[in-house]
C-alpha cells in the first residue's frame, strides 16, 4: 500500500489559491510578494520529490503544470516518476507530460491499496485534496503556512460536515521569514 501525502503552500487563513503568480486571483503570487526568501523553508520540497513514488494531481493543477514542469530541471524526479490525474472531464493526457487519468476517488483508493514504493504526492489540487481527505485517503500533510491572511480563495480543507480527523505533529519549524513548516500524520477519525 502506498501512502498519500497532500503538500501545499497555504496562507494562515487556509487559502492555497495562486501561490506562484497564476492569473485571475487578486492576491496572486502571495508566496513571494513581501516575504523574504529563505531556502531553509523549502527543504521539505526537495525531500518530498526525492522520496516520492508517484505524483497525483487534480485536473486544473495538471493542466497548469503539464506545459511547464517537463522543462524545469528542479522537477527532474517528478518528471521521471509515474503521474496520475483525477478528472471526470479530461479527455486525454497532455503528451508533453503524460499521466494516467483516474476518474474517481475510488480509483485513487485502488491505486493506494495496490501501489508499492514511495508515497504518492498531491501538489496543489485543492478540490482533489479535500475530496481525498473527506474519503479518508490522506496519510500525511506537508504544509508551508505563510504569514499572510488572504480572505477569499480556494482552501485546502472542505467544509463538509464530518467526524473529527485527528492529526499528530511529526515536524514543525518556524523560519526567520515567518513561514511555518507543519508536517502531520493522520491518525484517524472519531
TrEMBL record:
Domain (Bacterial bifunctional deaminase-reductase C-terminal) ranges: 4-180
Chain ranges passing through the membrane: none
An example molecular function term from Gene Ontology annotations: 5-amino-6-(5-phosphoribosylamino)uracil reductase activity
Single biological process term from Gene Ontology: riboflavin biosynthetic process
Highest taxon of the lineage: Bacteria
Protein name in the entry: Dihydrofolate reductase family protein
Organism in which the protein naturally occurs: Dietzia timorensis
Biological classification of the source: Bacteria, Bacillati, Actinomycetota, Actinomycetes, Mycobacteriales
Amino acid at each position: 500500500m502506498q501512502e498519500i501525502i497532500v503538500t501545499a503552500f497555504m496562507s494562515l487563513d487556509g487559502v492555497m489559491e495562486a501561490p506562484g503568480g497564476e492569473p485571475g486571483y487578486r492576491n496572486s503570487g502571495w508566496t513571494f510578494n513581501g516575504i523574504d526568501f529563505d531556502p531553509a523553508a523549502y527543504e521539505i520540497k526537495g525531500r518530498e520529490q526525492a522520496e516520492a513514488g508517484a505524483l497525483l494531481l487534480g485536473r486544473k493543477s495538471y493542466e497548469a503544470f503539464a506545459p511547464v514542469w517537463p522543462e524545469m530541471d528542479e522537477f527532474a524526479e517528478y518528471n521521471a516518476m509515474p503521474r496520475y490525474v483525477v478528472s471526470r472531464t479530461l479527455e486525454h493526457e497532455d503528451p508533453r507530460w503524460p499521466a494516467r487519468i483516474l476518474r474517481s476517488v475510488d480509483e485513487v483508493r485502488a491505486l493506494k491499496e495496490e501501489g508499492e514504493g514511495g508515497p504518492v504526492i498531491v501538489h496543489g489540487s485543492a478540490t482533489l485534496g479535500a475530496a481525498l481527505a473527506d474519503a479518508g485517503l490522506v496519510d500525511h500533510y506537508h504544509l508551508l503556512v505563510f504569514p499572510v491572511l488572504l480572505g477569499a480563495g480556494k482552501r485546502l480543507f472542505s467544509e463538509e460536515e464530518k467526524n473529527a480527523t485527528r492529526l499528530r505533529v511529526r515536524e514543525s519549524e518556524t523560519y526567520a521569514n515567518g513561514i511555518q513548516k507543519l508536517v502531520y500524520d493522520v491518525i484517524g477519525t472519531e
